[in-house]
Structure formats: C-alpha cells, structure tokens
Design goal:
This is Mechanosensitive ion channel. It is found in: Membrane. This protein is of the alpha+beta class and about 400 residues long. It is about 60% helix and about 10% strand. It has three domains: about 130 residues; about 120 residues, SH3 type barrels; about 140 residues, Alpha-Beta Plaits. The chain has a five-stranded antiparallel beta sheet. A three-stranded antiparallel beta sheet has the order 6-8-7. α5 packs across α6.
Length: about 400
C-alpha cells in the first residue's frame, strides 16, 4: 500500500509522466465510449429515433448515423476527462479543448451532411424521380454547413468569437466572390431550374448547341448529367439551362400525342381538274384501297362545293379521311393536310397531326406507314411525286447517244 502511494506521489510530482498517463487515460476512455456507442447505440437509434424494429434496406443508413454518433461520443468523453483529471498543465488542457472542439465541429458537420444525404434518398424513394430532384438544395445545404464549420474551426483555433471572424470576412468578400463565382452562378441557376420544375430526373432533353440529346440522370449543384441516346454520358453546367436554348420532350410524352409534321413534293404539272377519265383509269384495278378511292371520289364530286375540284383536292381529302380513321392518330388534336408555298422542286403537301405513339420506335413506324400509304396512293389520283432526276431518268435522243449510253452501261 505504501509502495502504491509512493508511486502515485512520484507520478503526480513528475509532470511529464503524469501528463502522458493522463493522455493515455483520456484516449482509453474515448475508445471505450466509441465501442459502447458503436455496439449499443444502433438499437437505441433504430427503436426510439428512427422507429424501426426490424431489418430493412434502411439498415445501412442507420449504421451511417450510428458511426457518426460514435465518433462524437469519444470527443465529448475526452473533453470531460480533461476537466475531471486534476493537476493537468493549463497548456495541455487548452490544447485538448482546442483539439476536441475542432474534431467535434468536423464530426457534427459530417453527421449533418449524412442526414442531408439520407433525407435526399428518402425523398426520392417516397416521391419518385418525376417529382423533381432536391440534390441541388442538399448540396447548397452542405456548402452552408461546411462554411459555418470552417468559421467555427478558425474561431476555435484562434480563440476568438465567430462574430469577429465573420466580420473580418467583409474585407475579403470581393476575393471570395471572384473565387466562388462559378459556384454562386450555379447556385442561382440550380434554384431557378429546381423551383420552376422545368427539368426533372428522367426527362428527355435536347440541346443542339452542345449536341446533347438524352435522359436526365442526375441534377446536381454545378452540373446536370445526361445519358445520350447512344449511351454516352454528358455533363452540362447547370447555368447553361438558363442561358442556352434547349428542348424538353417530357411534356410531349405526358400529353399523349407526338406531332407529325412532314411534307413531300407533288409535280405541279400533274395537277388537273377532276374528270371522268380519273374514274375510268381506276376501273380496271381492284382491291380494298382502290375501291375506297373510287367511293371517296364519287362521294366528293357529288357534293356542290366540290364541282371544280382537282385531283390534288380529292387526294388531300382522301388522305385526311385516312388519318382520321387511324386509331393511333389523336382525334382531339389538329389533323391537317395542307399545301405549302410552291418551290422549284414542286408543290409541298404537308401532314400535320399527332400520334398517340409517343415513343421513338412506334412514332417512326406510324409516320413511315402514313407516308408510304400516301406515296403509294398518289398514282391512283394521277399525281406525280417529284424527285430529282438521276442518270437512269435521262434517255438518249439519238443513235450516237444510245450507243455511248450502252457502251457506258
């Protein structure tokens, strides 16, 4: 007993040994507190804070929070141990308090950032991607939390009030504005994009300036990630979506109708007034399509307003009826077959309608069927479809030219 007392007296009298043993005791206490938190705090967090009693996919999130809390507990333990142990040098106590303060601020900052990430994941899971992305707001929150943490760390290290540190920032505000100008611009752009809800996760956008066309997969503070139609990935600065022209195709998908707007050229010399010769040329032909054309012409020319109708007018009305009878054409939207201004290549006939097949494959198939039908039926109205002549369309006009042509072929 006397030897133990003498040893303790020697330790107290030797400041260096006492300080080293005190530091070891504080570190050991912090380690024990970390183990307790890591293995016992998880159940408390799950049952009383997160209200979860069974294992779910959210268990990983619970572990993330518990790990951060287990990093905070040792810091607090070491801090109070430095106050409990009597006789420590004042310089050592101040150093421990400063280190504990800095580490505590860093761990609280990381914990808040983890909670923000978990909030983002929970929001996306509950509301879905189509409700909008809050990732930009989460990143803004992280920047604010990190800025406050930096100010508190500087105040702790310099042993000054945070208010003094904040007031001194006014002198270097211009420098900070220059350094963080892109972040500030992205901040404003992200707020505008997110609040106006013009772009959401899953939207298909097209930006011709940078040759981007694809699905939005991520909306962050500085960039918006797009998976292009060829599966390449593009990252566009968020500010570009308030300074550059782009097209969002998602409202079209949601409307249930995708526009078809395409024209082809009719040879103007083939446009004539209707006569019985048109019906006579159809008589030898049989088939459902030809019979429909015959009946359509008979019905139209019998009406008073169609007395001076042309073969092109009959053709346009026939195509219009064809479009109205297709099940994949939206009847509550515009259906127009019209002429455009004549050109040197012929008279443009434009189809303007909306198909219920909004996805690319089905849309292109519908559009192809319509124009293939128009090309095939134009001849029954004695209309010529214009295309620029090729070498096969040029026929020789003299024996010499015929001989040259046969030789070349």
């Amino acid at each position: 007993m006397q030897s133990l007392t003498s040893m303790l007296d020697w330790i107290y009298s030797n400041k260096i040994v006492f300080s080293l043993l005190s530091i070891l005791l504080m570190l050991l206490s912090g380690f024990i507190a970390s183990i307790i938190c890591k293995y016992f705090l998880l159940g408390i967090v799950r049952q009383f804070i997160l209200h979860r009693n069974n294992n779910t996919d959210a268990q990983k999130k619970d572990i993330r929070i518990t790990e951060r809390l287990s990093h905070i507990a040792p810091v607090i333990t070491v801090y109070f141990m430095s106050l409990w142990i009597q006789g420590l040098p004042i310089g050592l106590v101040e150093a421990v308090h400063t280190i504990c303060g800095v580490v505590l601020i860093i761990n609280i900052m990381i914990l808040i950032n983890e909670i923000l990430d978990i909030t983002k994941d929970a929001y996306t899971k509950k509301h879905g991607a189509k409700s909008g992305s809050i990732k930009g707001y989460i990143q803004i929150g992280k920047i604010i939390v990190s800025s406050i943490a930096v100010i508190l760390i500087v105040a702790t290290l310099s042993n000054k009030s945070p208010i003094i540190i904040i007031s001194s920032l006014g002198a270097i505000a211009a420098v900070l504005m220059l350094v963080f100008q892109h972040t500030l611009i992205s901040l404003v752009a992200n707020i505008q994009v997110s609040s106006s809800n013009v772009i959401r996760l899953g939207d298909w956008i097209e930006m011709p300036v940078v040759n981007i066309s694809g699905e939005v997969t991520d909306i962050a503070l500085h960039t918006i990630t797009v998976r292009n139609w060829d599966n390449t990935i593009s990252q566009v600065p968020t500010k570009n979506f308030i300074t550059e022209t782009y097209t969002n195709w998602q409202p079209m998908f949601e409307s249930g109708g995708r526009r078809i707007k395409r024209s082809f050229f009719v040879d103007q010399s083939s446009i004539v007034f209707f006569s019985n010769d048109l019906l006579n040329t159809l008589q030898p032909h049989e088939g459902t399509i030809v019979n429909n054309i015959k009946q359509h012409i008979i019905d139209k020319v019998a009406l008073p307003q169609y007395k001076n109708i042309t073969n092109l007018g009959l053709y346009r009305s026939f195509v219009l009826d064809y479009l109205k009878n297709r099940e994949d054409i939206c009847k509550d939207m515009y259906i127009v077959v019209r002429q455009l201004s004549p050109t040197s290549e012929g008279l443009p006939i434009e189809i303007y309608c909306f198909t219920s097949n909004v996805f690319w494959n089905e849309y292109e198939e519908t559009q192809s069927e319509i124009f293939e039908f128009m090309y095939a039926t134009a001849a029954f109205f004695n209309l010529g479809i214009y295309q620029k002549p090729s070498g096969k369309d040029i026929k020789p006009t003299s024996p010499i030219e015929a001989k040259i042509s046969s030789h070349l072929n």
